[in-house]
Write a structure and sequence with these properties.
Structural class: mainly alpha
Helix content: 55-70%
Strand content: under 5%
Largest sheet: none
Order of helices and strands: HH
Shape: rod-shaped
Radius of gyration: 16 Å
Number of helices: 2
Length: 41
Amino acid sequence: MDIQQIIVYLLVAAATAFLVKKYFFKKKKAGNCGGDDCGCH
């Protein structure tokens, strides 16, 4: 495995982690705020 493949795998992992954080942990944060966007973030 060369350095280019390692960089590509790291970028894919970072993008996947970002998407998972954006879409799956968003609901958890909204639940702490009463379900509506009350401007508390």
